[in-house]
TrEMBL record:
InterPro entries: H-rev107_PLA/AT, LRAT_dom
UniProt KW keywords: Hydrolase, Lipid metabolism, Transferase
Record-given protein name: Phospholipase A and acyltransferase 1-like
PROSITE patterns, per the entry: LRAT
GO MF terms, alphabetically ordered: N-acyltransferase activity; phospholipase A1 activity; phospholipase A2 activity
All residue ranges annotated as the LRAT domain in the record: 22-135
Length: 156
C-alpha cells in the first residue's frame, strides 16, 4: 500500500477550488502564481499576471503586462495549491469578490515588477486583498546589495 500511495502522491494533481492560489515552481528561487478560476467547457482555468507578451525591461519591470485567463496546464503540468496566507488572513469570497475583481482586471495594462508587483503579489491580492510575496522576501537580502550602488547613483 505504501508504494501505491507514493505513486499517487507523485503522479496525481491536487484538488482545486475556485480562489485557490496555484504555484508553478520555476527554479529554486522563484515560482509563478495564479488563482484557480474554475472550469469553462470542462477545461480548468487560472487567472495570472503575465508579462510573456510584454518586453521585460531592465531591473525586472515589464510595462503592458496583464491579467490573463489560461488553461491550468498551459502554465505547466507541475503545480501545487499554495494558499500560504490562510493562517494569517481570511480568503475572500470567490464569487462575490475575487471573480469580479479578476474579470475587472482582464484586458487592463498592469506593470509587472519583480520586487513590487509580481505574480505572487497579484495572486495574494486577489485571494486575500493583501499584496504579499514570500519568495521576494527570501531573495531580497541578495538583490538589495547588488542594486544599492545603482540606487545611490539614482540610476534605478
Amino acid at each position: 500500500m505504501g508504494l501505491c500511495r507514493l505513486f499517487l502522491q507523485k503522479h496525481s494533481q491536487p484538488k482545486l477550488f475556485p480562489g485557490d492560489i496555484v504555484e508553478y515552481p520555476r527554479n529554486k528561487y522563484f515560482s509563478h502564481f495564479a488563482v484557480y478560476y474554475g472550469e469553462k467547457d470542462g477545461v480548468p482555468y487560472v487567472a495570472h499576471l503575465t508579462c510573456r507578451d510584454a518586453k521585460l525591461l531592465l531591473f525586472g519591470r515589464a510595462l503592458r503586462s496583464e491579467i490573463k485567463l489560461d488553461p491550468l496546464e498551459l502554465l505547466g503540468k507541475k503545480y501545487k495549491v499554495s494558499n500560504m496566507l490562510d493562517d494569517s488572513f481570511s480568503a475572500r469570497d470567490f464569487h462575490g469578490v475575487v471573480k469580479p475583481a479578476i474579470d475587472d482586471m482582464m484586458g487592463r495594462e498592469v506593470t509587472f515588477d519583480i520586487l513590487f508587483h509580481n505574480s505572487e503579489h497579484q495572486a495574494t491580492l486577489f485571494r486575500y486583498g493583501v499584496k504579499k510575496s514570500e519568495q521576494i522576501e527570501k531573495v531580497y537580502k541578495h538583490i538589495m546589495p547588488a542594486w544599492k550602488k545603482l540606487f545611490e547613483k539614482k540610476k534605478l
